[in-house]
Amino acid sequence: MPDKGLGQLSDGLLFTAVVVYALAMLGYAGEQASRKARRAVTAVRAESRVLLGAGGPPVSAPAVPVVTERPSRAGRIALVLTLGGWLVHATSLVLRGFAAGRVPWGNMFEFSSAVALVAVTAFLLLVGRGAVERSLGAFVMLPVVLYLGLASSVLYTEAGPLVPALNSYWIKIHVAAAVVASGSFLLSGVIALLYLLRSRYDAGVEARKSPRFPVSLGAQLPSAPVLDRVSYSVIAFAFPVWTFAIIAGAIWAEAAWGRYWGWDPKETWSFITWVLYAGYLHARATAGWKGRKAAWVAVAAAVALVIDYYVVNIFVVGLHSYA
Amino acid sequence: MTELDEATRLTTQPAPVQQPRRGDPFGPLRLGWRQLTSMRTALLLLFLLALASVPGGFLPQTSLNPIRVDQYIREHRTLGPLLDRLQLFDVFSSTWFSAIYLLLFISLVGCLVPRTRLHLKALLTKPPKVPRSLAKLPVSERWESDADVDTALAQARSALRGWRVVRRGDELSAEKGYLRETGNLVFHLSLVLLLVGIAIGAFRGFKGTVLVVEGRGFSNTIASYDDVHPGRRFSPASLVPFSVDLKDFRATYGDDGKALTFNADVSWSKLGGTPKGYDVRVNHPLAVDGAKLYLIGHGYAPHILVKDADGTVLDDAPVPCLPQDPQFLSTCVIKQPSTKGKQVGFRGVFTPTTVTDEGGRVGSAYPGPKNPALTLTAFVGNLGIDSGIPQSVYTLETKSMTPVDNGQARALLPGQSWKLPTGVTLTYVDTREWATFQVTQDPGKLLALIASVGMVAGLMLSLFVRRRRLWVRAGGGPGEPTTVQVGGLARTDPDRFASEFAAITARMRE
Ligand code: HEM
Structure pTM? Predict the structure, then answer.
C-alpha cells in the first residue's frame, strides 16, 4: 500500500531539486556573462593596439575593468549545484518508488521526472567527457526547470498502485528504455535548436550583420560543428534504445492485448518518432541534407516525441492507460 | 571516381544519381531505378511515411474503434464523409499508406542487394592501396626514422594490432571496423524480414473472441466464436484443436472501485488430452502450441430460472449482461419464446452494488458484487423471433408486446421471484460472472521477433563501431634516413580518431 510520508518527502525533494537546478542555471549564465565581459576587454585592448600602431592619438587604459583569466567561479559552483540537484532529484525518484511500492515510472508525472533526470544525467556525462563546455548548462537547465515545474504542477499524481495492464515486468523494461531514450532525445532536441541558433548567428556574422536577440545568444554557444556532433552522438546513442523500447512494448502488448502492434495512437506516435529519427540519421548520410536540414529533422522528431507523451496521453483516447 | 575517393570510401551507400550514358536504350529505366534506390528517395519516403501516419495518430480508426468512427462521421456532416472517402479512418490499410511503404521497401531491397555485394567484396579483399598524397587525408603525419624501411614497416605493423593490415611493396594499408557496415546491412535486412513477418501474420493469422460464463466452455473452432477476424489466406484447418472451460472468474477492486486484479481459472485440454488447469490473467495468456488465449473482458451473468404457468422449467441458465459503466451497471435481455401462452420477454438491469436514487432509479456504486440486484421490466406478446429477421440476443423487439405493470420495473434480489399475470415465474437464483477470451494465432510472430532482435543488434554495431583506414608509406634511398608517412581517416567521430591516430603513430615511432 502507498506510503504517504515517503511520498511527501519525495515531492519535497523534487521541489528542492528544481530550485537547485534553477540556481545552477543562474550560475552558468553568470559564467557566460563574465566571459562576455572578458571578451569585451580583449576587444578594446586589441582596438587600442591597432590605434597605437596606426599612429593615432595615445589611448588611456580601457574603461572596462580587467577580468582575470582563471576559470569562472560561478561556472564551477553551477556544476556542483547541478550535481547536487541531480542527487536530490534521483533520491526523490527512488523514494517515490518506495512510496508506491513499485518502479517509479507508473504515471505521467513520475515519467516526466525520470525523463528530466536522464536529460540532466546525459548533460553531466557530456560535460564530464569534455564533449561540451559546461556553460551550455544555462541553455540546458532552463528547459529542464520549466519541464519539471510544468510536470509537477499539471501532471501531479499521488503515489499509488498500478492498473492491472501495467502490472508486468515488461513495463519495467519497456518504460525504463523509453525513459532513457526520451531523456536523451529531448536533450538532443535542445542541442539541435542551439545548433540552429548558432549557425544563424554565424551566418549573420559572416554577412557582417549584428544579430539581434535571440540569435545574438549564439555568441555564448559552442561552435556549430561541436553542437552538431554532440546532438548526433546523443541521438546515435538514444536511437537503438528507443528501438528496443518499442520492441519491448510490442512484446508486452502481445502478452497483454493479444497483438504486438495495433496502431493504437500511442504506438502510432512512437512509430512516427522512430521514423523521424531514422530520417535524421539518414539525412546525415545524404548529400545536401547535412547540417541545418538534418537539425530541423531532429527538432521535428523531438516534437513528435512530446506529442507522443503529452498530447496523446491527455487528448487522444487509446489503450495506454497512463495519465 | 578518383583514386583518393575510392580509397576513402568507407560506406557502401549508393552514390548520388548521375545521368546515364547517351544512347543507352535502357537509360531512362536505369535512371528511374537509380533514383528510386537513392539515399535521397529513401529519405523522402521515410518523411512521407511519418507524415502519412499522422492522421492515424489523431483521428479515430476503424480497426481500433468503429463506434467512434461512426460517431465522428455523424458529428462532422461534411468533413466526416470526405475524410472517410480519403481512407483517413483506415490510414494503415489505405492505398496511399501501402503505396508509400511498398515503395520504401522496394527502394530498400534495391539498395540492399548491391550494397551487400559491395560489402562482401570489401570483406574478402584487402584494404585499398595507399593514396598518392597521404597529406590530403584528414589526419596525417610524417617523420624520419633511423631504422631501415623493413624495420620501420614492421614496427608500424606491430602498432596496428587488431587491424587488418596488408603490405604492398613499401606500403601498408590497414583497416578496422568492418562490423559497422555489416551491422548496417543486418539492420536494413531485418527491416525487410520484419515486414515479411508482419505480412505472414496478416495473411495467415486468426483472431476470434468469445464470451464464456463460469461453468461453461468452448473449443477452438470458427463456429465457437462470437466474432472472428481471419487473415485473407487463413485456413480453418490451421486452428489448433483445444478446448477450454471457465471454472471460476475473480476480479478484485480497490476501495475507490479501480480494478486491481483479474483471474480466470480455466481447465483446458488438447483434443483427447487430459485437462490441465491454468490461471489466465492480464499479461498472462494461455499458450497452446501456436495459439494464445487472452483474457480481454468480463462481466456478470445473473442465473435465472423461468417456469411456465404449469410449473415446467423453461429456462435454467445464466444470462450474460453487458457492462455499461465503470461500476458495472449492466444490461441484458431475457426472451422466453416457448411458453404455452403468450411469449414473454424481459429487459434487465444488473447492478452489482445496488443503490437507488430519490427518483427510484437503480444504479451501481461499486464494481464488486456487494449488493447485487436484477431490475426487470417485463413484456408479454409476440417476440417476433419467428419472423425470419435475425435478432441479437442483447435486444428485445417490443413492437408487438405489451408491458407488464405499465412498464413498471421490479428489482429482484438473489432468490426472489416475479410471477407475471400470464402465470410465468422468473426467479433470480444467484450471480455468476463471465469472461471474454480472445484467441489469436499469428504464424509470423516469431519471424517478426527474430527480425526485431536483428534490428537492435545491427543498429548497435552500425552506430557504435567506428570504421577507419590508415596507410603507411616508408621510403628513402640507401644511406638516407627512412621517411615514414602515415595518413588515415574515419567514417565518424573525427576527434576520437585523431587521438587514436596520435597514439598509434606514437607507438610506431618508439
Ligand atoms: C525502411 C526504411 C529505412 C529505415 C527505417 C532506415 C533506417 C536507417 C537508419 C536508422 C540508419 C542509421 C544507421 C547508421 O547511421 O549506421 C540508416 C543508415 C543507412 N541507410 Fe537506411 N533505412 C531505411 C531505408 C533505406 C533505404 C531504402 C536505403 C537505400 C537507399 C538505405 C540506405 C542506408 C545507408 C546507405 C545507410 C548508412 C549511411 C552511412 O553510411 O552512414 N536505407 N538507415
Answer: 0.87
